[in-house]
């Protein structure tokens, strides 16, 4: 399970990508000094090796949290995220495995509890996407795999974490602008993001009486390894994000503060909600 070198790649293309190989490098550095908003908290972040997950881990660490970094098989990226967290004076552990495997999720949470003794924040960030121009081009294997990672994995991880979440805990899920606007070449991916939004709202209603808040973040086009590593056609990458009102893609450190806000007590009166760091696109809430 943890810190292994033999986690099999299970995807049809080169996903998940390595941030260490991406140029230009995504911006993950927190933009401001910490203020102790997560002092003493333990956060488990899936897909924390790179992209939005790395930026969120860095920001949470700056705000005082210790971090469990979950990732599939990008050991170099995960090691860097761990060093980033440790440079903020916090403790980090790395756990490699497939969140689409219910047993792995249970083992991963058990490792977090064994190491830290508790779990306060669950960030369900990991995801995958594959582009196809026609619905007939989506193989059964890809369809099952995308749902296995993006929504089954979110269920499995939340099920494993739930017995350890107490009053005041927070769950933050990563949905997408594609859930609201649609995306003609990401039919399976956008469908999972719709499921995640519905899951977020329903789980909020399910857990709110126990004092556990559940919210989500719906990023627009963000420069991470996901898109240039097979999540978008190669010819679209030079113009990636230019269709937003701001005319550019976002950076991971422009999304991480939304996760922080929803995870900390600043958002104590928010549950079942979705924040939209998307470069100015207006979407239905």
TrEMBL record:
Superkingdom to which the source organism belongs: Bacteria
Alphabetized InterPro entries for the sequence: NAD(P)-bd_dom_sf (IPR036291), Sc_DH/Rdtase_CS (IPR020904), SDR_fam (IPR002347)
Record field: compositional bias (Basic and acidic residues): 8-30
PROSITE patterns: ADH_SHORT
Transmembrane spans: none
Residue numbers spanned by region Disordered: 1-34
Assigned keywords, A-Z: Oxidoreductase
Keyword Amino-acid biosynthesis: no
GO molecular function: oxidoreductase activity, acting on CH-OH group of donors
Family in the record: Belongs to the short-chain dehydrogenases/reductases (SDR) family.
Name of this chain's protein: SDR family oxidoreductase
Organism: Parasphingopyxis marina
Lineage: Bacteria, Pseudomonadati, Pseudomonadota, Alphaproteobacteria, Sphingomonadales
